[in-house]
Amino acid sequence: MKRFIALILTLLCTAALSVAVCGENSASGPGMKFEKVNHDFGTLPHRGEKVAVEFPFVNDGNAPLVVTRTTTSCRCITIAAPKRPIRPGASGSIVVTYDPKDKGVFNKGISVEANIPGGSVTLFVRGEVE
């Protein structure tokens, strides 16, 4: 009887340990933690010089991070993203450049697609062109 109880306890402990390990593995992979996701350019002169902002991030996961695509709905924005994988613990940045061609208030989203949970992060730039 003691052997039977010991066997059952061993099996239960093994099962619990397997679940804990599997839980950790399901949460593994790359991560993308930004210092900020919003930037306000303030007031810009109409047809003035282009302005840029850098959105630094860290791969806070345990696998290489790959930025697969960046998109925006405005031709007034250009985006520069890392072309090589970012190692775990390493940093990178997304550089967003805005060309103040049109007058008015703007609030633009930039989608950054990567091999992260959720698949993407959205960055925002805003301001006013006078």
Descriptive report:
By secondary structure, the chain is an alpha+beta fold. It folds into two domains: 1-28; 33-129, Immunoglobulin-like (Sandwich). Helix content is 19%, strand content 43%. The protein is built from one helix and eight strands, in the order αββββββββ. The strands form two sheets. Strands 1-3-6-5 form a four-stranded antiparallel β-sheet, with no helix packed on it. A four-stranded mixed β-sheet has the order 2-8-7-4, with no helix packed on it. Strand 7 and strand 8 form a beta hairpin. The longest helix is centred in the first third of the chain and has 25 residues, at 2-26. Residues 11-26 have low confidence and may be disordered.
Keyphrases for this structure?
130 residues, 1 helix, elongated, 2 domains, alpha+beta, 19% helix, four-stranded antiparallel sheet, four-stranded mixed sheet, Immunoglobulin-like
Summarize the structure in short:
This protein has 130 residues and is an alpha+beta fold. Helix content is 19%, strand content 43%.
